[in-house]
Structure formats: C-alpha cells, structure tokens
Amino acid sequence: MVFSIKRRKQDIKALKEETLDVLIIGGGITGAGTALQASASGLKTGLVEMQDFAEGTSSRSTKLVHGGLRYLKNFDVEVVADTVQERAVVQGIAPHIPKADPMILPIYDEPGSTFSMFSLKIAMDLYDRLASVTGTKYANYTLTKEEVLKREPQLKSEGLLGAGVYLDYRNNDSRLVIENIKRAAADGGHMVSRVKVVGILHDENDKVSGAEVEDLLTGETFAIKARVVLNTTGPWSDTIRQMDAKLDAVPQMRPTKGVHLVVDNKKLYVPQPTYFDTGKNDGRMVFVIPREEKTYFGTTDTDYKGDFAHPTVDQEDVDYLLDIVNTRYPSANITIDDIESSWAGLRPLISSNGGSDYNGGNSQPISDESFEKVISTIEQYQKGNVDRYTVEDALKNIETSNSESEANPSAISRGSALDIDEDGLITVAGGKLTDYRKMAIGAMKAVIEILQSDFNLSYELIDSAKYPVSGGELNPQEVEEETETLAQMGVEKGLSDSAGLYLAHLYGSNAPKVFALIDEVEQVEGLTLADTLSLYYAMDEEMALTPSDFLIRRTNHMLFMRDTLNAIIEPVIAEMARYYDWTEETRARYRKELEIAIGESDLKNLKGDGNR
Fold it and tell me: Which residues form the FAD dependent oxidoreductase domain (predicted)?
C-alpha cells in the first residue's frame, strides 16, 4: 500500500474512529522501531509525530552504527558485546542501510590518551571476538606510523605512534527511521507525521486512555483513543510526562548537543572513517568520516537548554572542532568558510543512569593504577603465566576514579530507561541508535503485558531480529552483489551506472519500485532522472510532505551534495506544489522553511552572509 498524503487522510480517519491497542508518541528511531514490532505483531497501532519522521534526534547523529570500542578502555565488556551483537542484527534486517566501513584509530604519545598501542590491540582483539569477526576480512590489524601516514598523509606526524583498524559501520539514520515507518504502515499501522500531542486523556479510573492531538497541516484538533500510550519522544520525554495532568513527573532527561561540520574532501581527505582523541586531554574523541565526495567531522557534547526543535551550531562549536581537526591535520587549514554544511542534534541522555556514553566518558572511570594492573594481568594471561580466573578477579576488583563530575555532560549515560507511571503512561527514553530494536522489544513486552492483564487481549511478539524493514529484503551476506544487480536494472531502464547504484543503495529491495517510475513519470525540468524518481517515490511512498522532508531526510542532499542543491531547489518546490496542489501561500511558507534550514546548515549567521 502506498504511503502518501492520501494514506495520511485514511490514517487520520482511522485514528479518530478506532480504539487503538497502542498509541506511540514520537516518530524517531525508537518510536519507528516499536511501531514496526507492534504492527507486525497484529496490534492496532498508531504513531503520531509533531514534525517529520526522524526530524529530531534521529536524523542528526554521527551516522554510524557504532560498535563502542572505547567502552573496552573501562573493560565494559557486557556493553560492547550487546552493542556489536545488536549491530549485526540491524545490519541483517536493514542490509541496505548500515554498511561495513572499518575505522582507523591513530594513537598519539600525549597526556590523556585513551589507548596506548598495546592496550588498543588488546581491546581490538576482544572487540573482534565479541563481534565474531576474528579470522575474517574484517579482523582488526595495526599500522606503523609510516603506514598510517601513507594512508592519511594529512595527519599530524609528531607524536604519532601508529594506529589500529577495526570494524565499524556507516549508517543513514533518517533512512533507517523511514524504512521502519514504511514497514509498520504496510502492516496496517497508522503512521502520521505533523500531528502534535496537546494533552493526555484518561478514563473514569484516571488511567491513560489516549491523547488529544492537533493536525498541524489542517489545524484540526481531535482525540485518539488507545488502551496503552507509549512515549518515545527522546528529548521531549519530560515534556510529554509533564503534560499528563495525573502525574507529578520529575524531569529525568539531560539533553546534550552534538555538532557535525562538512567540508569538501579536496580540503580534507580521509580514505576511511577515523576516530581519535581530541588532544585536549578532555576525555573526548572525535570522528572524521568520508561520505559521498565530502568529509564530515564531529562531535561536540555540551549541555543544552534551548529549543529542542531547533538546536543550532554556535561559534564555540565551530571553534572547538576546527581547533581539533586543524591540529590533527595541520596542512588542512580549514576555516569556517570551508564548511559547506552542518548539523546540530540532541542526545536524549538520562541524568540518573551510570552507564557509558557512546562517545564520551563513564560516570565512574577506572583509576590509572587499576587500569595498568588489569593490562598487566591480561599480558601475563597471554603469556600463560596466570589463569583466566586471575583475569576475572582483576576485572571484578577494578577501582573507580570519580574524576567525572556533574559538570561534564560526556559522563552522562547513554543507557535507556523504561518507566510505567501510576496512570499507565509508558515512557522509553535514552539509549543509542544501535540499540533501538532492543529498546522497542522492552517497550512492546510492557505493552503486551498491560493488554493481557487489563484488557484480556493476547498478542505474541514477532521475532524482530528476523523481520526486515522496508527495502531490507536482501541477503546480508551478499548485499553488495545484490545491490549491483538491482543497480543494473536501473541502468537497463536508462539510468547511468552511478545513478543506478546510488538509488539501489538508497532504497535496497524497493529499488525496482523506484525504477518502475521511469515508465510512469516525466523527468522534471531542472532535475536529473535519478532526482525525479527519488522525488516521486518520496511523495508516493515515503510521506515526504515538504521540500525539507525530501532534501534533508529522504535524501541527504542538503548535507552531502551541497554543490548541486541550489540548482534543484526551485524545480523540487515547483513539482511538489503541482503534486500537492499548494496555494501560493503554502508554497512560499515551505520555501521559507527550507531557506531557514539551509541558512542554518550553511552557518549563514556565523559567516556573516548567506551568499554562496
């Protein structure tokens, strides 16, 4: 079934008339993953999102399905095991989205280094075992200083000791969300964007019974009845709970802001994702990642108290990242004028948990003395001088150092929490993108238990580890070969080799639907054939309702194809206006919305002018 504006009208009608088993508030990755599981398990499912799907946190990540090697500095084996195993599951159910892309981690002789070459190799070997890639083409290896500089000649050579290379995965975060949403919709779920919750409803027993919502496209307000209401709004979690008049909700979120900057790869060339200490002895690390013909780098991690819907890049963010990257790549000499695009996003961190932050520290990092003792014990174990029980004892008796303080947002947990309030409102918050499916499982188990105990309704949860998202019906072990085959189908219908491959990677097993549009639509004047097909597919099948939806989240055109963006803005707006029969007022409003987004991405205010 198509997922278009016509479907939206049908879904809103159903939301008004039906009593749902579960109403999910929030259309980021956690809400989308939960909606997929709920719909596939047969529950009457609704999801409302006040913005576009993935418009908040879930389109503003570092765009990795990150394995968390750094956790092993603190010997947080359980966290890494969970992360790499779940990453493999996500790659299995969405094989066209996460793609293996080994990470290089240079090691410098400087104060505060996360790893030495020795401890890095131990961590990588353990990481490989946990990820089950020992002995495969993705097994880790080390590089000498000379080998590192041959691979990345712009890297600073002073103090460089060498590097490790280990498996990681690049990701398209907003595409992962929309593919979960589309699958949920195909299974009968009512997935609706631009519908804002304005109140929580209760029955005569003061139990949550739905939500009052406003359709932001029409201005209409209506009630949605639901047996269970699930709050998956990320940074807005406290806002929804505080909207519930039957609760005295204590705030639990401490959002932090992360920033990424994009430059042309001719200015900063890296052959593969690179991850290193900031060099500031601040306990943080930074990614530098190639994408398309660009290089992006980040991230910052600062407390955020502004408008959750519009986090922006500040001068301090730019100064911080440019200082680090120009220090690590001295010949790059990147200035703010070299930044082609950028994004800022919020991390929905929970202030009370004690787990590890995926990119920062830990709420209780181990002391240097204890760390060295563990390393020494492992070294003795590898030489056969002690048994594994000695190693286990060393791990169990790690001494922690409370050097992280409340002033350091990098110390806040990336752990997740599931709370059921006294009136039945369920809130799932925190967590990492990599863990979204497991967070959804936890939420769904709670939902199903309530439906059974309170409503005598029985549902069996699907095995979501084997249930592909939309576009994911490819063999994960042969994804490159199958993608090439799909791309050739596009080439046979008139696309260039590069365009066919681009669309096959973007849409996975849905690519034939996209290619079929060649016979149905005329190429839009001012757009390539590939962009025309993407635009129509986004409107027909992906609920792209505005130019920003299409250019930022259904594709990453604004972020990684900035060179060609200006030329296609008006053709995209004109064709969407024709398709949706917009008034001149609506057309002008969406153009202005896009201009603001591009201006923020371009750092127009910081650069002093918006002329490109």
Answer: 21-353
